[in-house]
Amino acid sequence: MQYLSADCIIPVSGEPRYNCVLVLSNNGIVDGIYQKNELKGGFIDIDHYNGILCPGFVNTHCHLELSWAKGIISPHEGLDKFLWQHEKFRKSVSEKFILKSVLEEGHRMEQSGIVATADIANRDHTLDYKIKSNNYYHTFVEAFASNPAYAAAVFEKTVNLSKQFEEQLSPGKVSIVPHATYSLSDELFRLIAATGKGRLMSIHHQENEDENHFFRDGSGPIADRRKVFNPDLAAFAGTGKRPMESIAGYFDPDQKILLVHNTVSEQKDIDFVQHYFGNSYWCLCPNANLYIENRLPEINLFRTNNCRITLGTDSLASNHHLSILEEIKTIQKYFPMIPLNELIRWGTLNGAEFMGLNTKLGSFEKGKSPGVVLIQNADLHTLQLTPESTSHLIIPARV
Fold this sequence. Notes:
single chain; alpha/beta; seven-stranded mixed β-sheet; four-stranded parallel β-sheet; 33% helix
């Protein structure tokens, strides 16, 4: 058995525990959290850590394949300029550098305490890394094409890429997903929805106001980009509805779906999604939101509506770290009233529930093997993170 103590243990399944011992099997399976006087069996060697122990983090939105873009794209210039810069730079990046970046940043991400990741793929650059990694990866193979004439070809290409991942990993660890509410034709949405039944679904949602303008009346930067890439395509007139209201009909109401970013989501958006989808999750990527748009979602709005909130890192094209702790630090900086215990839950158990891993990951409950993360340099009196707080995986998870 392994006996770990710390100044504070956050089990997620309950309130923070102080001056207690986390007991694990040698394989990392949780036995329980005990007071020291409850431990029996003679001399016990307890490993004490200065700081906080919590379960391994779950990253529900990542683009590991974009690790090559770290520090390249200018921050705070908005999503439209971000996308154009990405399009410009990606054509000059070598295959060797992409693979090297995936290896280095993937390893760094896992060392920071992330034990499971829902990762977007447009190409196969992360496949070899995922095969060799001990961490759990669910790969969302992403599709987009606004022109219906391209729907069949794009879908076929996406299916072929998903088969590559399925053959090397597992069919249960791969889904074909739409990129965003605004970047697919009706035909492509239908093809994806038909294959997505029973599988995890993810979609970029309301990253900025451009998306709302586009669906309202077909105006704005999204319409302009659409015209550049599809000059022969008729202009989109808009639906007069909110983004998810405009595309939800492609999916079954019982579809397990993750809405990513939600930077400008309002009460009416939450009301619709909560009513239509009985199994919806809301992923926040605060550092990417600040990097691109220099704004954050109204996070308390999701809390008051009892939304199932998860956390993601997005990519290093729009972030300085692939670290869930860094996302939590940012939320706590701008929303200091949110308890650390709640934030840790978003970054652990809620993500595990979305990915269907909550019987093994996400909390220190008996029989689970969630891994153990050490958080150092926190304010233990107020249970607040500080700018100097760090996280490090000390015991790996087993899935």
